[in-house]
Amino acid sequence: IRREIWASLIACPIYALPVAIVLELWKRGGTAIYADIHAWPLWWLPVSAIVYLLAHDTFYYWLHRALHHPKIFPWAHAEHHRSKDPTAFASFAFDPAEAAATAWFLPALAMIIPIHLGVALALLTLMTGTAVLNHAGREIWPDRWLQLPPLRWLITATHHDKHHKLFACNYGLYFQFWDRAGGTNVRSEDGRPRP
Asked: Contact at 8 Å (CB) between 119 and 38?
């Protein structure tokens, strides 16, 4: 746990920097973030949240797979995988290289895809919550619920824990779509892929 906390303390400022830059640009009107609820149609509020989640999930899945390449892993992703049985503190325990590679994506999106400030804050809260829950080492959902929609499509602690134990599977961030499409989805106890 101490190691996870230490790695998180190193990674957090790296994540904070692009956000701080975008917030300063937003104050000057230089982003796609808006505060006036009527600046865009109300239907765009949930649609923008979905767009951001899907874009982030896609970006992270493919980057995460690349981070597992033998030449990249030792210096860019090994710190996170020191936790075979992760705790919630592992949620942000990343190598500086991984933090730098992932920290810019959402702030860059906020430069081009309109998002209400409240939706952005809600997404950051949701993203943090899912990261903590998925690394908690304990599933909060009953087993039978994990077999039913929508949980069967989402990344949960059970799903992500297999990634930490089996290593070459379950790379997704929020949804299991890319793991299924990429043949890396493992839901079974024997470690074999299942849809």
From this structure: no
Residue at 157: amino acid letter: A
User: Mapping DSSP to helix (H, G, I), strand (E, B) and coil, where does residue 195 land?
Assistant: coil
Please give the Cα distance from 148 to 191 (Å, whole number).
20
- 193 bridge partner residues: 186
Q: Looking only at Cα atoms, what is the longest distance across the chain?
A: 54
Q: For 113-168, what is each residue's pLDDT tens digit?
A: 999 999 999 999 999 999 999 999 899 999 899 989 999 999 999 999 999 999 99
DSSP 8-class letter at 35:
-
Residue 179 CA, chain-centre distance (Å), reads 14
Q: Where are the alpha helices (DSSP H) in 148-194?
A: 157-166, 177-181
The answer to whether the pTM exceeds 0.70 is yes
Burial 22-52 (b: 16+ CB within 10 A, else e): beeebeeeebebbeeeeebeeebeeebbeeb
How deeply is 192 buried, as exposed, middle or buried, from its count of CB atoms within 10 A (0-12, 13-18, 19+)?
exposed
Its sign, for the CA torsion 53, 58, 62, 68, is positive
Q: Where are the beta strands (DSSP E) in the chain?
A: 33-34, 115-116
